[in-house]
Design a protein that fits this description.
Blueprint (H helix, E strand, L loop, with lengths): L4 E6 L5 E7 L7 E6 L7 H12 L2 E6 L7 H17 L7 E6 L1 H12 L4 E5 L10 H5 L6 E6 L7 H12 L5 E6 L10 H18 L2
Parallel strand pairs: 3-4, 3-5, 5-6, 6-7, 7-8
Antiparallel strand pairs: 1-2, 2-4
Helix pairs in contact: 2-3
Length: 208
């Protein structure tokens, strides 16, 4: 498994953040910002970063502290995107993926930054956020949303409203529900595998 590395990254303009990343062993296909769950950059997040690197993606997770605001999420993502660009990733090969709280954060980023692709897996709250449906109407990046019906964050009806709102945007979107999965997808291993393949396929299709 590809090793992860954590560093303190500082820009010339003074912006700085802790980043955890993993680099592919061979050719870099593009760059992905990984937005983590409520618990921070856990062993599970490091495994995800390593797994994405094994698929050819230069993957980096900004360490977002506490209960972030929408502005905080966007600022952290911007620094991580700059880190990827510094390492030679072209703008049309940049994407974002988030899980749990990071799923909501990825949707927020997809509505405020023009990237090649974005994926949300589940979603919890980001402090001071507007409603998810309102965010989805403003998407400017191709977005895939993966949600488990057994979770306690969004009901099936709310996910369907999200689907409808996203479909009204001017970019490619898709929303998939899994009846037996929760927001972490650990309640249904089969759904977890299928969601992972959908995530990889979404990036394959849009970051090229």
């Amino acid at each position: 498994m590809t090793e992860t590395h954590t560093e303190h990254y500082r820009r010339d303009d003074g912006r700085a953040i802790e980043l955890t990343s993993a680099e592919p062993d061979n050719v870099v296909r593009g760059g992905l910002v990984v937005l983590h769950e409520v618990g921070g950059v856990t062993d599970g997040v490091r495994l995800l970063i390593s797994s994405l690197a094994a698929e050819g993606w230069l993957a980096v997770a900004p360490h977002i502290e506490g209960d972030p605001s929408a502005d905080g999420v966007l600022a952290a993502t911007d620094i991580a995107l700059a880190w990827l660009v510094d390492r030679g990733v072209q703008a049309d090969l940049l994407g974002v993926v988030g899980f749990d709280m990071g799923g909501t954060a990825a949707l927020l980023v997809a509505a405020n930054r023009k990237l090649g692709a974005a994926v949300s897996v589940g979603g919890q709250g980001v402090a001071e956020k507007p409603g998810l449906v309102e965010i989805a109407r403003e998407l400017v990046s191709p977005w895939l949303g993966l949600y488990g019906d057994a979770g306690d964050e969004l009901s099936a009806a709310e996910v369907e409203k999200l689907r409808e709102a996203a479909a009204g945007s001017r970019v490619a979107t898709n929303v998939v529900r899994y009846a037996g999965a929760n927001h972490r997808f650990d309640a249904d291993p089969g759904a977890a595998v299928e969601a992972w393949q959908r995530t990889l396929s979404w990036f394959d299709a849009h970051l090229r």
